[in-house]
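seq as requested:
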Amino acid sequence: MTILLQVYVFILAAFLGYQLISRVPALLHTPLMSATNAIAGISLVGSLIAAGGRYGTVATILGFIAVVMATINVVGGFLITNRMLGMFKKGDGAPKSHGK
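struct tokens:
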């Protein structure tokens, strides 16, 4: 019974996450992504606990999948934030030097 409950929670979380992110307007997506990197980091820690907690084979497999997805989310969030911050630099995109 616990395996079925774990799969149910996993599928429900994936569905709700997709529905929430897909309804965010494009103008708000980048600031939202940078703000939710901390939440994705917490998800990464939770998925590491689920993957290595010896709760069973299914929990380990789902935990591993969650680790991969959360890692992609965190890395993607940082890349998007970095790209957004790069849009605010002046000139040809090269970093400004303060000494000259």
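Residues 57-86 form the longest helix (30 residues).
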